[in-house]
Amino acid sequence: MKENKTVLNKILSAIGIALCVVFGLMLVFNITIIIKGLVKPDTPPTVFGFAPLIVKSGSMSSDVVHRLDSSEIVDMTAEQIKAIKPGDKVDSMMGSLRLTNVVQSVHTPDDGDLYFFVERPAPDHIEVGDLIFAKKTDTASLKVGDIISFMEGTSVVTHRIIGINNANGLSFVTKGDANNAEDTDPVPADKVVGVFKGRIPVLGDFIFFLQKPLGMAIFIGVPVVAFIAFDIIRRQRSAKKGDKKQDEMEKELEKLRALAKEQEEKKAAEEAAAKAKSAEDEKAALMAELERLRAQVGEKKD
């Protein structure tokens, strides 16, 4: 039982330390982002070369159905297009980017021109509420298909490159995966914040909440309250252990005192018995001596 409590205390201590470390790192991260954002409000703040960005738009979501006209399908004959059924995969072009479409439904209007509703699943899709990371990169190394974050006025937009222009300086034609048309204006190279490197689902909404006064209050208050509560519980447990140990020591001391008293009484009894026996022996010796003397006196009379 005692060993189980010790293991539980170690586990709770480890969990408490881990939570403090996690909250501490997140607090440092959040404060760094806020300070850098205040110092340079026109550019996204970076941490270790990465710009963390909160996604507020669904323009890069893969959970969107698109209309695809038969004329947009590439590398298929008219007969093959007529044979398309739900579940089939067909390719189309968006600028210089080749897209893979999964057919959801087939439609034949009165004029006979087929069209399809399709989905475009992408492994690098981005959803609303995600926290994404864009890394500063050499814009000359960017290629069609890359996802980039770029400045559009005072906002940051994250879209996919579907074309590259070099006519009047390097620029990029971009489009959101969920949008039906490409972005209106090409993106100059100097407006590129970085290339998309990854995302953490839903964490963006949490970070956005933490940047608000209520979120900051909770974020700072919860660890402080948790630490205080943990310290109080730890002190109470220590005090109880100390009281219990003191009670055990007092009980042990009482046992020792009782044992010492018992031994003293036993010793006194033994001494008293020895004295009594010695007195009896002495008395017996005196009686024997008295009898001997009486015997001698009787013999002299005779």
Structure in a nutshell:
With 302 residues, the protein is α+β, with helices and mostly antiparallel strands.
The total strand number stands at 11
**What is the averaged pLDDT score?**
84
- % residues in beta strands: 15-25%
Please give the share of residues in helix: 40-55%
Helix vs. strand class: alpha+beta
Major β-sheet strand ordering: 1-6-11-7-8-9-10
Describe the structure.
Helices cover 46% and strands 23% of the residues. Strand 4 (97-107) and strand 5 form a beta hairpin. It has a domain at 65-119. Helix 1 runs antiparallel to helix 4 (213-301). The longest helix has 89 residues, at 213-301. The strands form two sheets. Strands 1-6-11-7-8-9-10 form a seven-stranded antiparallel β-sheet, with helices on one face. Strands 2-5-4-3 form a four-stranded antiparallel β-sheet, with no helix packed on it. It contains four helices and eleven strands. The relative contact order is 0.11. With 302 residues, it is an alpha+beta fold. The model has no long low-confidence stretch (mean pLDDT 84).
